[in-house]
Amino acid sequence: MTSGARIVAFGEHRPPRVVGNDDLPAALGTDDAWIQSRTGIRSRRIAGPDESVVSMSADAAGKALAGAGIDPADVDLVLLATCSMPTQVPGGAAQVASALGARSAGAFDINAACAGFCYGLSAAADAVRAGTARTVVVVGSEKLSDWMDWTDRRSAILFGDGAGAAVVQAASKPSIGPVVWGSDGTLSSLIDIPAGGKLNLDGPAVFRWATTSLGDIARRACTAAGITPADLDLVVPHQANLRIITALARSLGATNAVVADDIVDTGNTSAASIPLALARMTADGRARPGDRALLLGFGAGMTWAGLVIEVP
Amino acid sequence: MSNDEILTEFARLVQEITGINAAQVTADKSFTNDLDVDSLSMVEVATAAEDRFGIAIPDDALKNLKTVGDAVDFIAKAGVAA
Ligand SMILES: CC(C)(COP(=O)(O)OP(=O)(O)OC[C@H]1O[C@@H](n2cnc3c(N)ncnc32)[C@H](O)[C@@H]1OP(=O)(O)O)[C@@H](O)C(=O)NCCC(=O)NCCS
Questions:
Q1: Backbone angles phi and psi of B37, in degrees to 5
Q2: What is the pTM of this model?
Q3: Given this model, what pLDDT does residue A183 score?
Q4: Which residue, A171, A203, A221, sits at the end of a domain?
Q5: d(CA B16, CA B21)
Q6: Which residues of B touch A250 (CB under 8 A)?
Q7: Ligand 1, atom 15: nearest CA belongs to which residue?
Q8: A143: domain CATH number?
Q9: Does the pLDDT of residue B82 top 60, yes or no?
Q10: Is B38 one of the annotated active-site residues of the chain?
Q11: pLDDT at A144 over 60
Q12: How many domains does chain A have?
């Protein structure tokens, strides 16, 4: 057993096509002011026909590997967190591994919806600590635009496309804290995509669940990491709705932390939202090496997972 | 807790969540028309009130709370402990 695991680099893929609130289909019958006040979203990226869950994943993960100077052939495991693959079978992880040139990697998908990246990161850290893998690529990637009902203003305004990735390796000093996770299958109807169908969202119920539950999960993740919310430098919750993020920040009392607001020009990108936010904040200097960041994913299932990491 | 005490405490919660001055939060005010509290802030206020007063405000009940007075009455009837 190695003593710990750490993230060594992030990478991202943001589709070039920017769709502002005013560019949304007129048939939705919504407006910019409503969307901004209820969600904080100004624009989102929407993938083009040549951008897929797999291709966006490979781009983001390739950048993370290049950033860390790691040969893709040395990757032992590829974990793809997604809930928007165009195929039920196969999953996308093997195609991502091949596109990367990770010839000897194991690969599997994780469908824990918007919580998927945190589940993947925790599984990656465990695999590294147990010695099952030395280098793991964890990707969150979504093309939810394929699964939107573009006549439903209660859901279509929220979501965007993109991919974010992290590379996890062994470390003498543990930098990925214990995960605090949970689920509640009695709430499975709150967010779903039935076979062959489109995404359904009970927005008010999800909002209520989130503002009731997330503070406690976040505090438990801090406790598990041996710190208090005041010790956090960054809070990076799943970018579901800025109003949920603001409510969480208030209830958590992370008074010294920068709170991720990537949703404003990214929309809700489900499993991709946390690594996308981290990649950007690392690049623009808001996240500095050694910073302690709380990651908190939650979504369809319901599923949730929170953990504290040290920024590479 | 008397209704006045509930109102004072409730107004404090509304100020904490929405930034509206607690002095503005009086019994006759409508949440949407007078105070500009939207449906999402109402949910947050309800969640905070549940915690603070140790009561439950189900969605069906929340929909019927149009004024600050409605909310205070609901909290009083829900059996707030002193
Ligand atoms: C989706 C969300 C923004 C909707 O906000 P809301 O205030 O709860 O909206 P409701 O569905 O209760 O609708 C309230 C009113 O706004 C209207 N409305 C909803 N969406 C609208 C839009 N895009 N533009 C204009 N009006 C809209 C509704 O028609 C309704 O009007 P009515 O009462 O006259 O029928 C909000 O519930 C939310 O963000 N929830 C969390 C969702 C989430 O995070 N999902 C992903 C989790 S991974």
A1: -90, 120
A2: 0.95
A3: 98
A4: A171
A5: 9
A6: 16-17
A7: B39
A8: 3.40.47.10
A9: no
A10: yes
A11: yes
A12: 2
